[in-house]
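User: I'm new to structure prediction. If I give you an amino acid sequence, what do you actually give back? Let's try with this one:
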Amino acid sequence: MIETPRLVLRELTPADLDAVAEMLGDAEVMRYFPKPLSREESEAWIGRWRACYARDGFGYWLAVEKTTERPVGQAGLLMQEIDGVAEPGLGYIIHRPYWRRGLALEAAAATREWAFEVRRYRRVICTVRPENEPSLGVARKLGLREERWILYQGYEHVLFAGERG
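Assistant: Good question. You get back a string of structure tokens that encode the predicted 3D arrangement of the chain. For your 165 residues, that looks like this:
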């Protein structure tokens, strides 16, 4: 579990299905993903992240607002293979009612620090679709530098990277 001033990042559980399905089923939230997810696909999404926790010791965590205890999104790390090299990748997704509050930046910054301080990774990456201006802004505010454009999961992405200071 990771805590920030406003959030708790914790592992997903099957009990989180309603909140996750609502978020991942929202067409605006999922605009830069291939498609919104059905309830069944959201259930499988939770299962995949739980498998990552068991395999890697991390994954996308549920971001819960401390004051309301409401799920507001997800953030975390996933191992991403780019050009045959696996590296920890930062990811974040915030549900639409909570946009423009700085929550993605707060959650991603805490995840980056966890990757450096707890897991002792030297470098983290972040892949962002070039048309996803809000996520590009988060990556830049995190101080990640743009390395190059890549094809990732069938879509063009900007590859950002940051190193432990």
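You can read the tokens as a compact description of the fold. Here is one thing that stands out. Residues 34 and 155 are 9 Å apart (CA to CA).
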